[in-house]
Amino acid sequence: MSQAKHNAAHAAMELVEDGMTLGLGSGSTAEIFIELLSKQITQGVKLRGVPTSEATAACARKHGVPLIEPDKVDQIHLTVDGADEVDPQFNLIKGGGACLLREKIIAHASDRMAVIVDASKMKKDLGAFPLPVEIDPFGMALTAEKILLALQESKCAGTDTSLRQNKAGTGPLITDGGHYILDCHCEKIPDPVQTAHLLSQIPGVMEHGLFIGLASVIIVGADDHAKIMELKSA
Ligand code: 5RP
Fold it and tell me: Where do the domains of the chain lie?
């Protein structure tokens, strides 16, 4: 386990209060956070979580973190999730674990989103990490063509795309929602707001991995500490 990820997850515990309903992110850093939550629960702190993937739900069950279905909550106080890239405006690329649709639904429904990362995820510009776009299998080639045009129009440096394959190598990866992931090798996304807007207009795009204006806290873990950064509201 990376110490930097652990330190980020540990620092996020400062934001957790008794009685909270938490959005539980996906990925290795989010799973460390879930493990830490289970220790609080053992000590009597009342918490429950809304998972953002089947893998996260399984992890929460394993560690004894009570779960609630998204349709049964009236408030999600805080979501804590990882990210693949974070820019200085707190825009994110997410979806490296193919959970971006559920992650975004839960983050968007939360009062607050805190992101836990190690320093390697902090970038001046987004786009070196391939941008995941979750698409419906129906009419996939038509959708891919529109995505290409959106990347060109928003002046992304690279416009190559690849359909993500499953780990067994037997075909396309299928997300928890039954969709495919098209990874967009943008290299640099000069205007993430515009790219996000254009991708959102395409009917076959279920969701894209640009998280704009959702994160208000970024926690960057290092080997011996973690730095908590809060977005100053304008
Ligand atoms: C999953 C995600 C993850 O949060 C992201 O890929 C970071 O993962 P990790 O904490 O394992 O580095 O977006 O869809």
Answer: 3-122+213-223, 131-202
pLDDT in tens, 93-102: 999 999 999 9
Class of domain 131-202: alpha beta
CATH class of the region 3-122+213-223? alpha beta
CB atoms within 10 A of CB 107: 25
Ligand 1 atom with the smallest distance to the CA of 118 is 12
> What are the beta bridge partners of residue 137?
none
Ligand 1 atom, smallest distance to 99 CA: 14
| pLDDT tens, position by position, 95-139 | 999 999 999 999 999 999 999 999 999 999 999 999 999 999 999
Q: What is the pTM of this model?
A: 0.97
Alpha-carbon torsion 164, 50, 126, 208, what sign?
Answer: positive
